Each structure stands twice: as C-alpha cells, then as structure tokens.
Amino acid sequence: MSKRAFTEGAEHTESTKQQSQNHAVIILASGLSQRLGQPKQLLVKNGELLVTYMTRLAITTNPQAIVIVIPDNHRLIASTMTELANQYPAVQIVVNSQADTGMAHSLRLGIGKIAALESTSIDRVLIMGVDQVLLDKPHLTALLAGKQTVVASRYHSWQDLAKHQNRDKTVSDIIGPPLAINYKLLRQWQSELIGDKGLRHLIRGLPADQIGEVDNDQLSYDIDTPEQLAFARRQDWLDS
User: Fold this and answer.
1) Which residues of the chain have pLDDT under 70?
2) Which residues lie across from 194 on neighbouring strands?
3) Alpha-carbon gap, residue 139 to 167, rounded angstroms
4) Are 49 and 42 in contact (CB under 8 A)?
5) Rg for the chain, CA atoms, rounded
6) Which strands sit side by side in the sheet containing 174-182, from one edge to the other?
7) Cα separation of 98 and 206, whole Å?
8) Burial tier of 169 (Cβ tally within 10 Å: 0-12, 13-18, 19+)
9) Please, what is the Cα angle at 144 between 130 and 216, to 5 degrees?
10) Cα–Cα dist 147/152, whole Å
C-alpha cells in the first residue's frame, strides 16, 4: 500500500481540482505481449477489457488529456479505444506502427501527442501501463501529490516477491512506472528515448532529492507470462 495517507474533505477536494488543471496521462499500451501469447490489453478485469479498465482509472485523476499508445493492426483494441475516446474527449489515441522496437518509441509518440495539444498549463505527466492489475486510484493520487521532479513507484519484481515474502534486505527494489514526471524535463528527454533505452536510466542520473518514491508491492503483479496470468485469475484479480 502507499505510504502516503490522504484525508477526506475540503483539502482533498481542492487537491483534486488542482490536479485537473496541471497534468496529462500517457498510457503505454502498444506492447505485443509475445511472452504471454495473447494481447494483455484484451484481458478482462471486472467485466471490462484491461485497456479500458486502466484508461477509466486514469480518467479518475481528472487529467487535461489522456494519450493512449496502442499497436497497429489490432482492430479490437482500436475500436475499444475509439469508443472510449468518443465518450471522453480527453482521451487521445496514438497508433504505434513500430511496437516491436521497444517501449521508448511508444513514450516518444505519447510525448509528441501531448506537445501537439499546445497546452501551456500541463506541468506533469503521469506515465502508466496496462498490466499492473492491482494498480488503484489511491496510488495514482499519491504519485501526483509528490513535489519532486520525478515521483516513481517502488516495488519488487514478481519473482523476488514470491521468494522473499519477508522483504529480504538483499533484494533490490524496482523504481519505475507508474510515475509522475515534470513535463518540461520529459520534453527535454524525448529525443534520448530510443529502443529499449527508456526513462529508467535517465531518472537514475537525477540528484536523489529530485526523486520521490511511493511504496506499493501490489504493483509487482504485472502480467507477462501464462503462469502469471493463471495466478492472477486464481486470485480473482482478472476474470476467467
């Protein structure tokens, strides 16, 4: 669970209003799911396709725009997102025709789409995927509440979590998405995102006081393999 606590009432309401004015969301959903053997975007959670579920989750943060990057030649994903974009004007669709080149290209496309909106009031971008099936609104709220240049999630890998239930100190944490990042910095880094050379190595180069972290080991449970999918379904995190 997040290590930040949020109170109900006027303060929280005011915080939500502020969030609606200053951030955009990029959802990276163009992965080809080669290890899984089926599009993870089309898995089902609570009766909805996972890509729809995660987009609706992003909508609850009241962003100025949600840019969702999807693969080409996937009619069901495209039609699903088009339907959602018709329902929510903030949703913008970008098709990645080079999904096999790595996540960095998807992120570059997402950044470019936000830049094309020419909004002068976006100061942060929330970056998320679609396969961390236990991601929830409180965690996204915690990321957006951080004041550092980058506020990232901290969790273990699925394998390490299974092996070290007692949080063995020798196990390295993952510092990664979902994360919130200063928009101007993200624009500066756009040209450096190539292939699998993503944000993580760039973030590591920042001074420690510019990086905030929100703990949440529930994010360890992403879906990359048939075994992970089967486990998630047994736990009722995903529909059978």
Assistant:
1) 1-21, 159-172, 195-197
2) 197
3) 20
4) yes
5) 17
6) 91-96, 65-71, 23-28, 124-128, 174-182, 150-155, 211-215
7) 29
8) exposed
9) 60
10) 11
Half-sphere exposure of residue 90: CA atoms within 13 angstroms, side-chain side? 18
- Name the pTM for this structure: 0.85
pLDDT at 176: 87
Cβ within 8 Å of residue 126, ≥6 positions away = 23, 24, 25, 26, 58, 61, 63, 140, 143, 144, 178, 179, 180
> Which one, of 208, 210, 157, 217, lies nearest residue 3 by Cα?
217
Which residues sit opposite 65 in a β-bridge? 24
Q: Report all structural domains of the chain as residue ranges with CATH numbers, in order of start.
A: 20-234 (3.90.550.10)
Q: Which two tokens stand for residue 25?
A: 């969301």
Res 17: pLDDT: 44
Q: What is the pLDDT of residue 97?
A: 85
pLDDT at 172: 65
As a residue count, the chain comes to 240
pLDDT at 215: 94
Q: Using an 8 Å Cβ cutoff, are 219 and 138 in contact?
A: no
What's CA 118's distance to the chain center, in Å?
22
Q: What is the pLDDT of residue 158?
A: 72
